[in-house]
Each structure stands twice: as structure tokens, then as C-alpha cells.
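User: Just a sanity check before I run the rest of the batch. Below are the C-alpha cells for the first item. I only need the designed sequence back.
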């Protein structure tokens, strides 16, 4: 009987798909049950996979949670990059797009907040997660400093302004996800734009 063997490309992609399914399942478990509930068994059940598959791809739950943190951060970064690219070439528009993208889907999402809170809860308990947290926030601030520089903000002022903008965005994002009835996404965008106008006009 003639049987068509799977192509090499298919064989390469299948493990990647299985690995991704475990990462996505881990994110859902973290959002629903927090870090304490993210056991190998719970994640495997969520993914419809065997417990052994988690060990095969990640070696254990700690490595899977770490990989999930990286994956979620990449998704956020991609959403920010898309917003900046859509804004065109104007430096001010690109800066505003980067900052205000956090107040719209897929970033302004209660499920994402729940997953992120689970990661934050591990920062003080796990050095690898603390390192990832520091690297991710440093990357966000570095991107923000570059966009501020494109708008003419002085080199000496960029770091402190990037820290301030990051804190403002985090605070607004948290409240928007936790209590969406307190203010609208448009109000959050307006608050952020007002602050950007202030710092970009005063530090040239």
C-alpha cells in the first residue's frame, strides 16, 4: 500500500505546536488559579496533554512558567510594535501610539492582568522570574527612551521620564483592567497624552 510520509517541515512544526499549546495552557491556568495553582497536572489537563509531555519539553513546571512569562511578554511587545508601526513616521504619533496601546486590546484585558499578577507574585520568590521582570521592564523603558529622544527630549532627561511614563501607564492599565467603570480607555489615553505633551515640551 502506498503511504505518503509526512514532510520534514511537518515533523519540525509539530513539536513547536505542542510546546506552544502547553505555554498557552500555562497562561490560562495562571490567570485562573494563580502561581500556586500552576501544577504540572493542572497545566497538562488544561492543554489536553500528558503530564510526561510537560517534562519532555520543559523539564518541569518552573521552566514552563518561565517560558510562559517570555511568551506573554513577546505578545505584549508585538502589540506595541504594531501600534507604533501603524502610527507612521511622525515621532510624536509613534510615541503616543506606544504609550496608549496599553489601554486597548489585546493589552487592556482582565485575563492578561490575572496572568501578569501571577508572574509578579513570583518575582520575590524566584530569581529567574525576577531577572526576567527586570529585563522586560528595562527593554520597555529603553524603547520608550528612544521614542522620547526622537521627539527631542534631552538625553539627560530621558531615563527619568521613561520611568515616570512607565509608572503612569502601569497605574492606568491596572485600574482600567480592575475597575473599568472608574474611567474610560479614552480618558486613560488623554491623561497619558497630556503627560507626554508636558515632558516633550519642557525638556528639549
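Assistant: Here's the designed sequence for the first item:
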Amino acid at each position: 500500500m502506498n503511504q505518503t510520509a509526512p514532510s520534514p517541515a511537518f515533523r519540525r512544526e509539530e513539536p513547536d505546536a505542542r510546546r506552544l499549546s502547553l505555554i498557552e495552557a500555562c497562561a490560562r491556568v495562571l490567570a485562573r488559579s494563580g502561581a500556586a495553582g500552576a501544577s504540572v497536572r493542572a497545566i497538562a489537563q488544561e492543554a489536553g496533554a500528558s503530564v510526561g509531555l510537560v517534562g519532555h519539553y520543559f523539564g518541569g513546571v518552573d521552566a514552563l512558567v518561565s517560558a510562559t512569562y517570555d511568551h506573554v511578554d513577546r505578545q505584549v511587545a508585538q502589540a506595541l510594535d504594531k501600534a507604533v508601526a501603524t502610527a507612521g513616521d511622525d515621532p510624536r504619533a509613534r510615541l503616543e501610539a506606544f504609550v496608549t496601546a496599553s489601554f486597548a486590546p489585546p493589552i487592556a484585558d482582565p485575563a492578561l492582568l490575572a496572568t501578569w499578577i501571577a508572574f509578579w507574585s513570583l518575582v520575590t520568590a524566584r530569581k529567574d522570574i525576577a531577572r526576567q521582570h527586570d529585563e522586560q521592564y528595562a527593554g520597555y523603558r529603553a524603547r520608550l527612551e528612544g521614542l522620547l529622544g526622537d521627539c527631542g527630549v534631552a538625553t539627560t532627561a530621558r531615563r527619568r521620564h521613561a520611568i515616570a511614563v512607565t509608572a503612569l501607564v502601569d497605574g492606568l492599565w491596572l485600574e482600567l483592567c480592575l475597575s473599568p467603570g472608574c474611567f474610560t480607555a479614552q480618558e486613560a489615553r488623554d491623561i497619558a497624552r497630556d503627560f507626554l505633551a508636558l515632558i516633550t515640551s519642557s525638556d528639549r
